[in-house]
Amino acid sequence: EYSDALRRGHGAYLLEQDEKSQDNFIINVGALPTGGISSSAGTTSKYVQIAPYTIEFRCQVEKNNVSSVSSTSHPIQIDLGQENTYVIEFSQQNIHLDRDILLDIELANNHSNTIVAVESGAVMASFTPTEQDCQHARNNLETTNQFVFIIDCGGSMQDENKIGLAREAMLLFLKSLPFDCHFNIIRFGSNHKTLFNEITVVKSEENARKAEQLFNQLQADLGGTEILRPLQWLEERSPWQGRS
């Protein structure tokens, strides 16, 4: 429709959402009429370098585990009068749209790195290692690391090419594993399948090649989404002594 409108000489506008970053939009403007000035020498108008478009900004940040909020891009003011939230606004008027708005939200030192939510029939757990956790792992050189990847291969992973994204991520993880580690891969859906029968095996060239073949053929073909059984399989096979 856009191309047809251009061929007919009409003004046309096409707005598209960027597929890679969903918050960016691209607008194409076509078939604009010529300007009304007959000669550039006949005008005394000055070229406008900065368009007079400004922006108002208001943001609410929950106070839970937040120690401070600041901005390196704009002057801001923070309303501390609200009970549960900080209210952030610009401290100056007529802020131009010439750069991104950056907010630096600093968390309290005692914030929890584990989040657990329990609902009827569902459990969600999210764990983010702290800097101290990572440092402890680096210092503990006598421990052999075990990596177990649990991959959802249920039918819903076919939507929006989620299985394709999982495939790319797993190939990247595989290439990043050190050769002295141990690993295994568990796919699950209505049932679960392990690449190796043992809880983990050493990352040799042969075992890495088997994993890469599995990832290249990864499909969303295992039915439903039953994650409990692969977790039970892991629980029954504790890590070997000297491995984490």
From TrEMBL:
Entries under InterPro entries matching the protein: VIT, VWF_A, vWFA_dom_sf
VIT domain segment(s): 1-49
UniProt xrefs under Pfam families: VWA_3
Protein's UniProt name: VIT domain-containing protein
Organism field: Rotaria magnacalcarata
